[in-house]
Specification:
Layout lengths: L21 E4 L1 E2 L20 E2 L2 H15 L5 E5 L8 H14 L5 E6 L1 H4 L4 H10 L1 E9 L3 H6 L6 H14 L2 E8 L3 H19 L3 E6 L7 H6 L8 H14 L5 E5 L8 E5 L3 H13 L15
Parallel strand pairs: 1-4, 4-5, 5-6, 6-7, 7-8, 8-9
Antiparallel strand pairs: 2-3, 9-10
Amino acid sequence: MNALPIRYVDPVYRPPSEAQSLILPVTDGCSWNHCTFCEMYTAPQKAFRARSEDEVLASIRATGERYGDQMRRVFLADGDALVLPTRRLLVILEAIRQHLPAVHRVSSYCLARNLRRKTVAELRALREAGLALAYLGAESGDDTVLQRVNKGETFDSTRAALDLLGEAGIGRSVMILNGLGGPLFSHAHAEHSARLANATQPEYLSTLVVSFPQGEARFRAGFPEWAPLDPPALFREMETFLTALDLRRTVFRSDHASNWLVLKGTLGADKDRLLAQVRAALERPDAAALRPAWARGI
């Protein structure tokens, strides 16, 4: 396949579940970009900007001309496409429907702060136009942890954003960062993150392990007492998190490359099995089929 007729600015990110999706940048970078744990959009070339409507529509048309019947999913990049005005998003979604008619799901990262600027009616219009799923990095449900990592959100603001999406009928995939609170806040981080999930009942829930391939200096500047959790401590935090979850039907994944222990299931049907896996890893780590350190692609 020839190169797509889309201008990409490296590095390009997408959720693991969007591996087969067309990555369509409608913005570059992240409109907040102050979270101290995040290394995704810190490069100078990733300064936040909205791409012009003309460029985005031209990319959709050209992609449709070449591969229109091959594309099944589209992921709107970069960090929070939903920062764009609803009118512009509707134009983009209509162009996808027109030029990429085989697409059956459009998804996007989003920030809670940007959802607060949209009404339920606007979000419903986006859903009707094809936006099926929004990935929201909650990171934690604990206000102290959120403040230490400069997330710019609280339990209440994140819950309100997830409730807006749910009321509009847009699927929600929520991400929590295992280990983000370090040893000092590990229990509160797990308990309050579970409380957030219980309050909002997202369709999808995932956990990643916090990591710093580029070093911890930026993160520690605002969180000097933080220390990384070793695998047993991460598993204990996961045990606390899973125990506190009371979900009716949420697809759960803890299978990102950063995770030592791969967990997959549906909550609550598989809660007991998942807890048994975590407890077995604590009791017999040598028999738990943990991901080796060299394979953790972070």
